[in-house]
Amino acid sequence: MTRADFQKLAEIRIDEAEILLNAKKYAGAYYLAGYAVECALKSCIAKQSRRFEYPDKQRWQECYTHNLAKLLALSGLEALLLANSAVKLNWSIVKDWNEQCRYDRLNRAEAEAIYEAITGSADGVLPWIKSHW
What we know:
By secondary structure, the chain is an all-alpha fold. The protein has eight helices and no strands. It has helices at residues 3-22, 26-47, 57-62, 68-75, 78-83, 85-94, 108-119, 125-130. Helix 2 (26-47) runs parallel beside helix 7. The longest helix is centred in the N-terminal third of the chain and has 22 residues, at 26-47.
């Protein structure tokens, strides 16, 4: 997967999340919205690699995770995010997402909250990540 692949996936997943939210499929919307953030952060991590670089095995193995907080740290964006109070507030809603939520029964309020925290204006987590990818 390339950086561009992750960027495209982030866009596709957030679009799919919106479709599911509008169709009242809240668990799926929640899951795909978080997955969009995962892809966006992985794009930022991919940006750090250099062509023909032999990667550090441990560092790159750490990148194979669904943990958003860990991916944020690996992306090098954590300090910038924490310094931005508006994005930090939205991150506080998004950070607890994990891939296991695909098995959860989530309600409308939960799905709408994460979707808004991710997409909302310039302070949404996804627009903020995009400004760094």
